[in-house]
Write a structure and sequence with these properties.
The complex is a heterodimer.
Chain A: E1 6-9, E2 20-24, E3 27-30, H1 31-40, E4 49-53, E5 56-61, H2 70-76, E6 84-85
Chain B: E1 9-13, E2 16-20, H1 32-47, H2 64-84, E3 88-97, H3 108-133, E4 139-145, E5 148-156, H4 160-169, E6 176-184, H5 192-195
Chain lengths: 88, 203
């Protein structure tokens, strides 16, 4: 399957000290919180995306994929010349 | 308003309402951050009013009929989860290792002892927190994060402040830091078949 569009993730700042964008109750919601939730929580459908960080391809996702936050991707990336992953 | 300033459309299926936007694909990579924030605000605008099952950002269907077919196939599961999770929200506590200086590399065993100590503190705090939250959390889940743990707690709407109060009362061991967030849609507590529905002919 041909790789899909590349989505370069922004440079992640140190966890939990990112730009504050909104307030939920008494807690500030950071950009990192938002990105982590919209990318890493919720329903997953099929797709094809290449996630890159600083121009380096991180994970190629084929059919039956999950789009993960950079944290999850770094934790689960398998060594090797190609990192292909599908989630069952 | 949906992502990129386009309008939100509604697809109805029995008791279910699916909100979607027609967008340019692929997303402009330079716009992903802006799109994520817009998506977040759209979801939370609805979430403030009722329970939602959010899709992840970049969930894209080729055309409207694909979405219609998908909803027809999986609508019953979504309805069941929405009913089950009605009037609940997801609160989170992230606990992570505080940066206290370089690791102890004086010897292999010193390094491992240091690491074990941090892990022990993490587990102790997690256990204390779970016990403290049991009156308010109908379900509590823990996931490992890169530098700590994320604790997800399903609570009734209206008990968000009680959750925060309880968490703040649990002492945090010195090598750790804690951060609370929420309320979020209860995505962690969706059933597995809803989290990852089977797309026609593929699994």
């Amino acid at each position: 399957m041909a790789p899909g569009p590349r989505i370069p993730l922004l440079q992640m700042q140190n966890d939990f000290e990112s730009v504050i964008l909104a307030r939920h109750g008494e807690e500030d919601v950071s950009l990192l919180d938002i990105l982590d939730h919209v990318l890493n929580a919720g329903v997953v459908i099929h797709g094809s995306l290449v996630i890159s960080l600083a121009g380096v391809d991180l994970v190629y996702l084929g059919v039956n994929v999950v789009l993960t936050s950079i944290e999850t991707a770094l934790r689960n990336i398998e060594p090797g010349p190609e990192a292909k992953r599908s989630l069952r | 308003m949906g992502v990129g300033g386009v309008s939100l459309n509604t697809l109805e299926h029995h008791e279910l309402r699916v909100l979607w936007s027609e967008v340019k694909w692929p997303f402009e990579p330079s716009e992903i951050q802006k799109s994520a924030v817009e998506f977040h605000h759209a979801v939370h605008h609805i979430f403030a009013q009722t329970v939602v099952v959010p899709f992840r950002l970049l969930s894209v269907f080729d055309h409207r009929q694909s979405l219609v077919d998908f909803v027809a196939r999986h609508g019953a599961g979504f309805i069941a989860d929405l009913k089950r999770l009605q009037d609940t929200v997801q609160m989170e506590c992230v606990v992570f290792f505080k940066a206290t200086g370089p690791p102890d590399l004086s010897s292999g065993s010193a390094y491992l002892r240091q690491k074990a100590g941090l892990q022990s503190a993490l587990e102790e705090f997690g256990g204390n927190l779970r016990n403290a939250l049991s009156p308010v959390g109908s379900e509590i889940r823990t996931r490992q994060a890169k530098h700590g743990n994320r604790i997800y707690c399903q609570v009734q709407r209206g008990q968000e402040e009680l959750f925060r109060t309880i968490v703040q009362q649990v002492q945090v061991p010195s090598p750790l830091e804690r951060r609370v967030s929420g309320p979020w849609p209860p995505a962690e507590f969706l059933s597995e078949s809803v989290k990852m529905p089977e797309v026609a002919g593929q699994r």
